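step 4 of 6: structure.
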Amino acid sequence: MTDSSGQDVTHPREGEGHPLSASRRGFLKFAALSGAAVSVSMSARRAMADGAIGYHAMDLPDDKLVDMYRTILNIRWHERTQADQMLGNPEYRGYNHFYAGQEAVATGVCAALRNSGPFDQIDLVYSSHRPSGHAIAKGVDIPKMVAEMDFRATGMNGGYGAEMHISDPAVGFIGADGMIGPAPVIASGSAFAFRARGSDQVAVVFAGDGNYAAPHFHSTLNNAKLLDLPLIYVCENNLYHQYAHYSYSCPHTDIADAAAAYGIPARTVDGQDVTQVYNAAKEAVDRARAGGGPTFIEAKTYRYYNHWGAPGAKQGELGAFGYDPLAITSFRPEREVRAWMQRDPVDIARNILVDWGILDEARAAAIEEEVKAEIKAAFEWGLSQPLCTPEDGLKHVFAEGTVVPRQFG
Amino acid sequence: MTEKSWMYAVLEAVQAEMRADPALTWIFELTPPVASNPGMPVINLETEFGRKRVVNTGIDENWMASAVLGAGLAGSRSATYIPYQGALIPFEVIQNVAGKLRSMTGGKASMPVVWIIEMTGQTPGFAGQHSCYEEDSYYMHIPGVRTIIPSTPYDAKGLMVAALRSPDPVVYLYPAGLRTLTEEVPDEQYEVPLDKAAVRLEGSDLTIVSSGGGMPGVLEAAEVLKAEGMGVEVIDLRILKEMDTETLVTSVAKTKRLLTVDQSYYTLCPGAEVIARCAENVDGARFKRVAFPDAPPPASPEMFLWMRPSVEGIAGAARALVG
């Protein structure tokens, strides 16, 4: 289909592999070696001619691509380690809405953003109740996030926020939001400010398929288009809002169809392939920085765990297959989970990098071991941090001072 | 009579009303109207009445709240279950439309509508948005809307029957922390009136007034105080609007001491209204409020549990007031 800006809106093809990607990168390398700028632009035309997005990922330097692989692994092993804590450590009090399975979405989008520098120059990310992947991809300090999720006084937000409210503006991670609805509209307000003050910053919101039903979704897109705001709406369609399939809340197969109706350039991408996500994000960021307004990206993805916590999961194993007693109306079948796990974002990223000759299998495995050790150390540090002081609950209500205790009369 | 869980008692009320009235509808998101109880048939409103009458929507509390109002205005009784994720999103339509419509239409609008608004407030670790308990203060402020808050499975059923049969719009607050309570609940339909507080314990030294999620802690503190020899009268408000002033004033006229206990924030907590009404009507009484401080509930259980009114905090305030 074609959106209102005349661009082809692509759809992920079932079982699409990456020989084309690899050959493109090979072709580009060859073209660069032959020193022909003409060949580069020709390759770009060829890339667009079959309806694909400009293949920006293949232009990235090797270390950036390895960083993306490492970020995916950081998220994956954070989630797995935390799930194991929830399942196996009776002392552990933290929880999460696990992001495992969706790693390529946060990683691909944030790789296209400005994540370090002065606060008035970096791009801002608004997250959801499923925030750990977004936070890690944006560059938060993982040990401090681990400490926050276990309510520690030295956690990222002093133990006040925990999982659904983690925030670190210093890296442009405005933060999680436990509610469905408000975050996209608020993100559009940040984009509004960027445009008003002549900044080239962009605002990104990650929201799930469940957000479609909320009036906020429609208000966000309407106003972002009306005001040409530098907003990137990343719809992570993992098929389920809480325990219900998204067909209960959205009449479209592709939620991107709805965004196109608002006159916003919209794409659906394979959310399991970090390069495809990056390509779409790069295109969106370039458009926003150039004053071209908002973009909507629908990433087709899947979560390996149930909506909340680790019911149905086993310690040391990836994913949850057991029945979640909270899911009565509409529960996903185990075969669906296993089918999605066949297209795992970690495997896909590793295979591309090996295919492109950036890593060999041994180095890829060594990086994964490094990441596992770092995440293990992050949990050891986080879970050894001090607990909060009760009276501190009266702080941070206003910029200064404390409020009065009222619980004793 | 059978020992029943909170939600079984509530859905039993809804099921019987829906069987009697084929126009009655139920809208939910994420929280299926399903309950089971040992020795009783499983209640599943969705499968029994079908998806035309029992609708699982997207996450859109604005639609849920507005749709039941529209159904009511069209002559169909209607109820919706708003989970705590969206407890205040319906506020605008309840406050600025439903609450005023009977008046604005000169009495012509009929609104047999129930919004079940779930409150958490009892969950350490959930933080700010998921452990608030402030909905009572907001909704009880609205004229034209009956705002009620049961604290027992028996009242939960009887108030649900009364709410569904009321021609007035009802905000039915559900403190979700009480979901584990069970008690003997009649199988047949019965009404608990929409204008009466309940005296849970009689005594002559001190009146303690609370509601909803505050009640278990109050009753526990009252047992402690009784064992110490204090004559404690405990009143469960049940109805925040229209508040049962007579029961409150009668009690405080006797005890001359009033302690209110709320999990809501101190400012404008239901107890503030209780104290104001008693102060207007009883001379020479003394008053004290226990409530959550005027601060968002922090995630850390250490901070949250210290800030939430506790049995020890309630008993301490009672001793200070009586001693």
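step 5 of 6: annotate
 - The beta strands of chain A are 124-126, 173-175, 203-208, 231-237, 240-241, 244-245, 266-270, 295-300.
 - The CA atoms of residues 287 and 293 of chain A lie 7 Å apart.
step 6 of 6: archive
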